[in-house]
Amino acid sequence: MNKESHKTDGRSHGGDDVGAPVLMPPLYRWPPQPLAILQWIWAGVLYPWGLFFLGLAIFSWQYLTPSLEAMASFSLDWIGLIWLRNAALLFLIAMPLHWWLYQRRGQNASQQTQSVMAATKLRTVSFSLAA
Asked: Is the four-CA dihedral 104, 131, 88, 46 of positive or negative sign?
């Protein structure tokens, strides 16, 4: 089977690229390269989204989670607070991503793993109550 048989426009379809080499991160290379490992962790893992989510997790734990004393006994009060916190965080994170990626189509074709966007005009996927 030809390597290019699954491609029509030179881009990968389905999230895999058979012809691209698989690069090993510096963390797993031997001999160890400490500077390359630190650069990879900073640029490839933490900056910018890793730091954002780390900060969000610390803020959420510190300020939006009930105290351990309150959670020592089973009660719907603190369970409800945690559920509301999680629902609000999900809404605040997922809603802008959905708007940017699907409604505004803010991601250009070179960054997409699928060349065909999800259908948005169908009633089953638009979540519209109007007929």
From this structure: negative
Side chain identity at 45, as an amino acid letter?
V
Alpha helices in 1-131 (DSSP H): 34-40, 49-63, 76-98, 123-126
Closest CA to 3 of 12, 113, 116: 12
pTM above 0.70, yes or no: no
**Which amino acid, one-letter code, is at 84?**
L
Q: What is the pLDDT along the chain (131 residues), one digit of tens a residue?
A: 444 444 444 444 455 566 778 888 899 999 999 999 999 999 888 888 899 999 999 999 999 999 999 999 999 999 999 999 999 999 999 888 888 877 777 676 666 666 666 665 655 655 555 54
Angle at 104 between CA 102 and CA 105, to 5 degrees: 60
